[in-house]
Structures are given as C-alpha cells and as structure tokens.
Amino acid sequence: MDINDEFTKIEEVSQDLLRIILEPYKDDCKYLKKAQCQYLDSKVAPEKFNRENKNILSIKGEFSIPVSCYIADTGHFNSVEFNICYNQLSYVMIAYAVEHKLLTVMKDWDLAIYKRCQLSNFLIVKFSSTFRKQINSHQFQGTLSINKSSERGNLIILKTSCTFYDSNDGWSEGDVTIAILKSEPDISLDDSRTSVSV
C-alpha cells in the first residue's frame, strides 16, 4: 500500500497495545520498540476497503536487537531473528486490526479473544525469506502488509509480505502465509473439510 494514497490513514500504535501483545516474550526478546499502522479508511472509500480484502493494512516498525537471545553476537540480522521480528510485527498489526475492526474475516473478534488465541491459534503454514545485504541488528526497520485475507472452513488465511532494512541499505524480505484457527474449541488442521495449503 502506498503511504501517499489519499485514502490511507496513518496512526501510531499505542505503547499500551505493544506492551499487551508482546507480553508473552521475555524482556530481552522484545525487539519491536514502536510501530505505525496505515490503512484504507472504510468511511472515505468503502468500495476500495471491501474489494477482496486486498492490501488494506500495513505496519512499519522500529527494531533493536542489542544482544541475541540464542547465540553469541553475530553483529547482523539473521534468519532466526527475521522470524521473531516477523512474529512480533504481525501479532501487533493483527491486534491493531482487531481493535479497529479493519479485517472483515475477523470482524467478530475483540482483543480479549485475540489474546486467548494469540499463541495457540496462529500458525505459519508457508514461509520464505531472502537476504540481499547484511542488516545491522542493533537498529533497523521493518514493514509488513496483509496482501489478501480469506476464510477456509475453520481457518482464517492471511497472505503477507514483509521487508527488513537499515540505514546502510541492508535488506531482507519474505512472504509468509498465516492460518488462524477460529476461536471455537476442538478445531483440528486434520479436519478433512479444511486444507491449509495455499
């Protein structure tokens, strides 16, 4: 989504929401420091907002990894940290979308439901990442967009793309598909009526 789109709203994510959503992480693994969401204003452009739920929301985050949580300091951003940072950015973006009713496929959710489901019901079903140039892990940025949302049986499917970069042209990017189990009990990925291949 172009940040200059006339129908785009840009808002800071509150530190309270960041704190609530990153609460499951150990203190030294809370890499996302602040974030800003941009989205299409449904009141201004309902025809764009409702069209196939494509490209309606993105987030930009500021990150810092002073010390790696699992290995001696390598001095650069690596694939494990990519995954952790992706998770934190996506958790916060989806929480923001739930709070502001921005995703039709999650229109019945609220933050209480989201918090109950945050760890157990969110599954990465497809993940790819590419590293173009080394990123300084001590200070960098990331962006993430929901490219498409849909429902399949008991699953909500979100197709997303992300980039991480720093001020010295460090760059990595990826495409990730998330399956979210709906909040009803006893949902299984083995249900013959549901497929998570996308």
Summarize the structure.
The protein is of the alpha+beta class and 198 residues long. The protein has a single domain, classed as Thiol Ester Dehydrase, Chain A (Roll).
Strand order of the largest sheet: 1-2-3-5-6-7-4
- According to CATH, what is the topology? Thiol Ester Dehydrase, Chain A
Largest sheet: 7 strands, antiparallel
Shape type? globular
CATH top level is Alpha Beta
Proportion of β residues? 25-35%
Backbone structural class? alpha+beta
The name of the CATH superfamily reads: Rv0098, thioesterase-like hot dog domain
Count of structural domains: 1
- Spell out the helices and strands N to C: EHEHEHHEEEE
The poorly predicted ranges are 1-7, 48-53, 185-189, 191-198
CATH architectural arrangement: Roll
The average pLDDT is 84
Summed up, the helix count is 4
Please compute the radius of gyration using only Cα atoms.
17 Å
Main attributes of the structure:
Thiol Ester Dehydrase, Chain A; alpha+beta; 20% helix; 198 residues; seven-stranded antiparallel beta sheet
Please specify the SSE layout and strand pairing:
Layout: E1 8-12, H1 15-21, E2 32-40, H2 46-49, E3 57-63, H3 79-99, H4 111-117, E4 122-133, E5 140-152, E6 155-165, E7 171-181
Would you give an account of this structure?
There is one protein chain. The protein has 198 residues and is of the alpha+beta class. It has a single domain (8-181), classed as Thiol Ester Dehydrase, Chain A (Roll). It has helices at residues 15-21, 46-49, 79-99, 111-117, and strands at residues 8-12, 32-40, 57-63, 122-133, 140-152, 155-165, 171-181. It has a seven-stranded antiparallel β-sheet, with helices on one face. The longest helix is centred in the middle third of the chain and has 21 residues, at 79-99. The radius of gyration is 17 Å and the shape is globular.
